[in-house]
From TrEMBL:
Listed InterPro entries: RmlC-like_jellyroll, RmlC_Cupin_sf, UGlyAH_Cupin_dom
Stored SUPFAM superfamilies: RmlC-like cupins (SSF51182)
Listed name of the protein: Cupin
Domain (S)-ureidoglycine aminohydrolase cupin: 158-229
Pfam families: Cupin_3 (PF05899)
Gene3D superfamilies referenced in this protein's UniProt entry, alphabetically: Jelly Rolls
Organism placement in taxonomy: Bacteria, Pseudomonadati, Pseudomonadota, Alphaproteobacteria, Sphingomonadales
Amino acid sequence: MSAIVDQQVAAVVDMRAYAAGTSPSSDWLGGRATPAFSDAAAEIASIALRGEGEVAALPTDEFILVLAGRLEIESSHGALVLGPDDTGVIPYGSSFRWRSSDDMLAIVYAAPTDRAGSATAPLLIDKDAPLGPSNPPATENLLSEVPTCRGFSDYTSANAEFACGTWDSTPYHRRQIPYRQVELMLLLAGKVTFSDENSSVSFSKGDVCMFVRGDGCAWLSTEYVKKVFATQRPLN
């Protein structure tokens, strides 16, 4: 389940490796590790919450991916319970109490905004959601036949730039292209190899990786792939 690395691929980060050794904290907003990525539109960091606490009003949209342990989020809308490899969204402005196990470790993807998007209550990402047609990579970037891609967004931000959900695809090979987006990905099925002019890295079921804005990388999958995603991509 661990990533296979030839050398470092600049556009890709192994998030389980990044999160290892995160210092415990009882502060939801202030207790996060140095971000794996941060700019004005997105911040992705690990957190190892301990005990319980309260957030009066969340200042961003947040996607949570639990790597280990258990996290409970209680709001006026009910309880959201996340275990290992569960993912959820807490919209901007949410008020909630949280409680964690003593081994809790998670990745938090925060996307600044000024209002909630397609939901106003914390929600679980449905890994079994019905998937609809999704645009495949542009044909000019493909080094293989055009794949069949499907997707479902459980949450979309108010400005439509931040989205979280599930996606799958038949095998394909795409050349290296620049990335405008910042994406966090949990692989639910299959294996993908990412490469640039210097190196390559392969991720398989259970791995968590992040792709950053910049020069990007190539994608090669030789089998069916399914993922949970959270991505921030400017519209313009």
